[in-house]
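Thread: Newbie trying to understand structure tokens

Hi all, I'm a second-year student working on a class project, and my supervisor (Dr. K.) asked me to get a predicted structure for one chain before our next meeting. I've only ever worked with sequences, so writing a 3D structure as a token string is new to me. If someone could post the tokens and maybe explain what I'm looking at, I'd be very grateful. Here's the chain:
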Amino acid sequence: LDYRTVMNDENQSYSMNCTVNLLNFYKDIDREEMYIRYLYKLRDLHIGYENFTEAAYTLLLHAKLLKWTDDQFTLHIQDFQGSQTQRQLKENLYNKIIDYLDKGKMWEEAIHLCKELAEQYETEVFDYGLLSKTLQRQAKFYENIMQVLRPKPDYFAIGYYGLNFPSFIRNKIFIHRGKEYERREDVEQFLLNQFPNADIMKTTSQPGDEVKAAPGQSIQCFTVQPILAEQAQFHNKNVPEQIVDFYKANNVLTFSYSRPIRRGPKDPENEFASMWIERTLFTTAYKLPGILRWFEVLQVSQTCISPLENAIETMQTSNDKILAMVNQHHNDANLSINPLSMLLNGIVDPAVMGGFAKYEKAFFTEGYMCSHPEDMDNIKKLKDLIAWQIPLLTEGIRIHGKKVTEALKPFHDRMEECFAQLKAKVESQYGVRDLSFSEERRGGSGAGSRP
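---
Reply by user tm_fold:
Sure, no problem. This is what the structure looks like when written as tokens:
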């Protein structure tokens, strides 16, 4: 009934959600012909909105039903009228899916399909002409991964609260995958176009029953961060940042939202000491991206991060940024030093002092350590991260010195002076760490490891 109601409606969310519900229904009752028909209806909807990645994942569901055999395929598919066998149809589908993945800049996924096609051409049908074309296409995708800028999509948690929403979204949360450069304001405007009578909520807290049971429509929208899944293939290896970046924003199932909260008395000298982080984790029904730009959240959990734990996370993130930028310059001698200049100066500036002076005042005092003996392991971890920052900065400043222009030489000299003071202070208090950047690694290391 929902599907009949919305098929003449211009509401993108309604149409796509209902189409997915229908194709899942036909799959469950083993009506393959109807299931495939609605896969193509969903594909057409995606193409209409230039959702090429989602269109690719949609057609992939059909391709997975087919085998690499010469069995006849009887179902009529408008797009592939010349396909007589399962092999022919699957091959044509793969090539169409690869086209969509290329348009969506999902080259890693396209490479998987190229490899499968190449295996068929090399070992099953012995078509070396098509093998050559496929390998050339695959090589171009590898080149794109390393050389083409791919802005990471933002992800948004969207909650639909109130009795006036249709049942399949009412009082539910979805994670929405934004398009390139799409901001939260753009998503909110998109939602208001879809639901012109709705109100946009100003809070990010979970609403109570009074909002969920209200007769109107309230929409909650805020940015969440994708959580990188464990990538075993990268373990203890130096992997270029361009390769790792893909997995930071794709094939993701869990997302986080963090907001600061205060506990205990406020210290006017060091507000950080009483600043806790409330972190909410959202787990979706399926990985994103997928056959929709959004998937329902099936699980929500909440934890509190102590000020000390937050300091450790912040320090680790800072070290990771330095290491990533150092490795980018190792891999590309022509890279601009402007971002490196800003990063290094923001850390070694005496006013910042590595950004950890507030941690020392908050956690490294006798008073804190005596009253929080359970935190000693984390205090040791934080001191270790501070110590590890010095060899990272040493390499960053070395690279900066080699690339700096004559006009910026005074700026670099001043930065070196500041760093010398910072280095002496840290090494005297927290020890010396050695992170070897050999000439071989400087020529081809990556950002997959961390100290």
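A couple of things are worth pointing out once you decode it. Confidence is low (pLDDT under 50) at residues 438-450. The first helix runs from residue 2 to 6. Feel free to ask follow-ups in this thread.
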